[in-house]
Amino acid sequence: MLMFILKSFTGQTKRITLLITFSFLMCASSFAQGLKVAAAANLQSVITVLQKDFKQRTNIDIDPIVGSSGKLVAQIKNGAPYDVFLSADMSFPESLYKDGLSAKAPVVYALGNLIICSTKDIGFERWERRLLTPSIKKIAIANPEVAPYGLAASKLLKKKGILDNVKSKMVYGESISQVNTYITTGVVDVGFTTQALVKDPANKTKLFWKLIAPKTYAPIQQGLVILKHGETNLDAERFYNYILSADAKRIFEQYGYRIQ
Amino acid sequence: MDLSPIWLTLKLAAITTLLLLIVGLPIAWWLSKGRSFFKTIIEAIITMPLVLPPSVLGFYLLLAFSPRHGIGQWLQDSFDIQLVFSFQGLVLASFIYSMPFMIGPIKSALQQLPASLTQASYTLGKTQWQTFKSVLLPNIKPSLLTAVVLTFAHTLGEFGVVLMIGGNIPNVTRVASIAVYDSVERMDYAAANSYSLILFSITFVMVISVFVFNKYQARSPLE
Fold first, then answer.
1. Which of A72, A174, A181, A206 to mutate to test the interface with B (most CBs of B within 10 A)?
2. Nearest to A185 by CA among A101, A260, A99, A120
3. pLDDT of residue A28 exceeding 70
4. How close is the nearest chain A Cα to the Cα of B66, in Å?
5. Which of A216, A257, A211 is closest to A108 using CA atoms?
6. Helix, strand, coil fractions of chain B, as percent rounded to 5
7. Model-level pTM?
8. pLDDT averaged over every residue in chain A
9. Cα–Cα dist B205/B62, whole Å
């Protein structure tokens, strides 16, 4: 298709031959298989940094597949050819381990930080009260059934005793990435998300936010497993060790994660 | 199983179809009469949702509906209406999304009617409206039915746009297609199967009845 268009533009055989060769080369490079890494949506920005750093150190390519942990697990259980899985919690990788889809039990690679965030300064000091006021019309959280950050947020609201009062204001993102979209485009007044959003240099929106004290919600322990598909792949092993290394830890910390 | 997503979907599809029928009929009629550059542009815009990725539509609607700027802000400030994450918003989105399915078939059918029909009616002293209502419309019944059924079915099948601007709120924006997606993510395949089977059956019955009805109608001398 592309060739056809170019051909009709240039009409020069030499150049066309060149273009054909070039496009074949491009195809060839895109067919080169990297390590398939399924990554929870909260890792959206940090995974590309890890990808670059890992490539620099080992010259191994990885292809990140980013989505909500629940969706990725459903895909893995149905035969998705992923080698390594970085989840947003422990229960999803544990269920894979139980189903025999990973040889080793999951390990925690990072602890997630939950924040409350908005494009407006809504006065975060007493956010529990602010959420109940009429000026807050829409509150975004990730779908608690599939996204661990959503579950943490929903449990937090329940613990604060305001979950039922704000239920009518709630909007559910299919993953934490969608919650980030809702927050940064300003379609919701406020949302609960990962601290990685505000630590991401790529984010150009001015955001106001407050870290939710980690003591007030169950820790978001993010689990790592090598999947059955990657069991015999040495690169998967190297990536696994890299994620648990001090080098990766530094990057995680820069992006608003805690390390145990 | 929670049947509310099915009811919500049927409600959305019914309202969208009704609105599109009311608005679409005059537009289709206007488009069917003669040609001009302006008409071509309008027709192109109406047809575009057919080929445009739903994510493009969803993205622009998300921005347009945002209460932080533009139209969304104006609606919010003047009428206290928020379209994003609301049922009304879904109706508007479905309206745009299904427009070609309503207007396309009706326009083509009107164009294929012999001009002598309209002329004869005018000669007999009938007004434009009377001609449209009593002469043209009865003659395009099969296409009208096709348009209505396809619009309804297409709205049932809406997914990408709703995923982007819906917010998955039970009873408000969690339509059946979203409920399927949700159930699959939750690994609740039984629920996903029930929703899917219901959608599958409804769509199948609808499409097949159009085929059966149109085959029967095809025997009419004007077809």
1. A174
2. A120
3. no
4. 5
5. A257
6. 80, 0, 20
7. 0.80
8. 88
9. 33
Alpha carbon distances (Å) from B85 to A56, A68, B53:
43, 20, 20
Tell me whether residues A70 and B63 touch, CB distance under 8 A: no
Coil vs helix vs strand at A225: strand
Q: Is the pLDDT of residue A52 over 70?
A: yes
- Tell me what pLDDT residue A70 has: 87
Position A128: which residue type?
E
| Both tokens assigned to B220 | 């009419």
pLDDT at A201 over 90: no
What interhelical angle do A148-159 and A176-184 show, nearest 10?
70
Q: What is the DSSP letter of A227?
A: B
Cβ separation B185–A140 shorter than 8 A: no
Taking CA B145 as the corner, what is the angle to CA B141 and CA B147, rounded to the nearest 5 degrees?
115
Ranges of residues in chain B with a pLDDT under 70 are 216-223
Task: Tell me the nearest-neighbour CA distance from B68 into chain A, angstroms.
Answer: 6
Residues of A with Cβ-Cβ distance to B184 under 8 angstroms? 71, 74
As a dihedral over the C-alpha atoms of residue B49, residue B52, residue B53, residue B55, rounded to 10 degrees, the angle is -70
Cα dihedral value B102, B108, B114, B120, nearest 10: 30
Q: Do A174 and B67 touch (CB under 8 A)?
A: no
Residue A5 reports pLDDT greater than 50: no
Q: Distance (Å, rounded) from C-alpha A64 to C-alpha A256? A: 20
Q: What span, in angstroms and rounded, lies between the C-alpha atoms of B86 and A193?
A: 22
- ipTM exceeding the 0.90 mark: no
